[in-house]
Every structure is written in structure tokens, then in C-alpha cells.
């Protein structure tokens, strides 16, 4: 499966800002809960377990560096 490096251009900054705005004023626990709900909603939109597994593998492979 191809995982596209950037399908948000030229709006990637807007996407990032929307994510940060959604977390504004939340505690760490509330922020984690929001992320979990968002992931589940996005997984539902994707709807393909194979694609989801590929995305999870790719995301896990990213470094913190």
C-alpha cells in the first residue's frame, strides 16, 4: 500500500492549527481522550482493516528524533 507523504498541501498548517485548537484548554487526560475518539472516528471513515494496519505500522515506525 502506498502511504502518501503529503496529501494536505497546501493546507497542512490549517489542519495542524485545527488540531491544536481542538485541544485548547483541555487537561492532558482530556487531550488523550480526544485523540482516541478522533482516531476511532478516522478509522471508521477509512473502514478498511488492512489500510488501518498499514497506517499503524507506518505511524509506529516514525522516530521521535
Give a structural overview.
This protein is mainly alpha-helical and 65 residues long. It contains three helices and no strands. It is globular, with a radius of gyration of 14 Å.
List the helices and strands and how they pair.
Elements: H1 12-23, H2 28-46, H3 49-61
Oligomer: single chain
Uncertain ranges = none
Helical run tally: 3
Percent in strands: under 5%
Strand and helix order = HHH
What keywords describe this structure?
65 residues, mainly alpha, 68% helix, 0% strand, globular
What is the structure about, briefly put?
The chain is mainly alpha-helical. It contains three helices and no strands.
Amino acid at each position: 500500500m502506498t502511504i502518501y507523504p503529503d496529501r494536505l498541501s497546501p493546507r497542512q498548517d490549517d489542519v495542524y492549527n485545527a488540531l491544536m485548537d481542538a485541544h485548547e484548554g483541555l487537561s492532558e487526560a482530556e487531550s488523550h481522550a480526544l485523540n482516541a475518539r478522533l482516531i476511532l472516528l478516522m478509522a471508521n471513515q477509512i473502514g478498511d482493516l488492512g489500510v488501518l494496519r498499514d497506517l499503524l505500522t507506518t505511524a509506529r515506525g516514525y522516530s521521535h528524533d
